[in-house]
Amino acid sequence: MGGVTAVVLGLFVAYAGAWYLGMVEGNFALLLFLATVVTGVYWVAEKLHFKPQRERAAQQLSEQHAQRLAELQRQGITKFDTQGTEPARQKLLAQPWWLDWTAGLFPVILVVFVLRSFLFEPFKIPSGSMIPTLLVGDLILVNKFHYGVRLPVINKKIIANNEPQRGDVMVFRYPPQPSLDYIKRVVGVPGDEVAYLNKRLTVNGQPVPTQALPDFFDADSMRYSKQFQEQLDGKTYGTLNDEGRPAFVPGATEFPFNDQCRYSAEGVVCKVPEGQYFMMGDNRDNSLDSRYWGFVPEANIVGKAFFVWMNFGNFKRIGSFQ
């Protein structure tokens, strides 16, 4: 079994290495699921077969030693090794390395799998599309059960919970490439008509209340942007606009239900289909979102982002957000 286990662990390491080097498109959810299954099989085998086998061997050794002592005493020999078979017994009872690295890790991997799949999943913000709400380098937590319980890997909902609301910051599988996770703000739910014209957001004909704030300085790009405060369905958050960028949406691609969107020099107007959501980044002129690649299907939802648990460059970032 040691050789087989070495091959299995080698395959996991090779996959992780190829993923790190960009040779394959990684899927951490699938990797964690397989690790849970494989180590779980070893854990069950250890409990039902390997451990009892080692215990029987240790018991047999003890019995043989007891018989040997009895025979020596029968022969009148009273001086013998007092240490007995204990070192040998402990060696027989010890887990081999291949069980230490499989069955021994199963409880930890199982806890991580359950937490990540059904409760909370950590994410790192890689880009500035959600500035000023979320900054590059923010480590956030995503509530995986807020929008319902989903099966890992295939992401199929099995238990319903809350529906996404306007203003929620949501993580979802990027529709053009579902292996990637994106994070944006929900601005349109099924049935809504969302208009983003001349850099102002309107939902169902009602302009979203907006208030000008002092300009925002982005230390990474060393640039100032116009900053505003929006209020959408009881949620208050900041947005940015780049005065140097035009209002129209350049480079929009073909996407499902694109006939529900009308593009013009002023921007875009979309009617959100049933079972779909319209997403936008808070950094409005620096976000590839539903204006460009279309709606997010309900099946692509991952969870609701709600808390920055760490930013190693700025500890003041830690806390909840809207």
UniProtKB/TrEMBL annotation:
Domain Peptidase S26: 99-310
GO molecular function: signal peptidase activity
Topology in membrane: Single-pass type II membrane protein
Entries under SUPFAM superfamilies matching the protein: LexA/Signal peptidase (SSF51306)
Substrates-to-products reaction catalysed: Cleavage of hydrophobic, N-terminal signal or leader sequences from secreted and periplasmic proteins
Taxonomic superkingdom: Bacteria
Keywords, in A-Z order: Hydrolase, Membrane, Protease, Transmembrane, Transmembrane helix
Enzyme class: hydrolase
UniProt KW Magnesium keyword: no
Name assigned to this protein: Signal peptidase I
Organism: Hydrogenophaga atypica
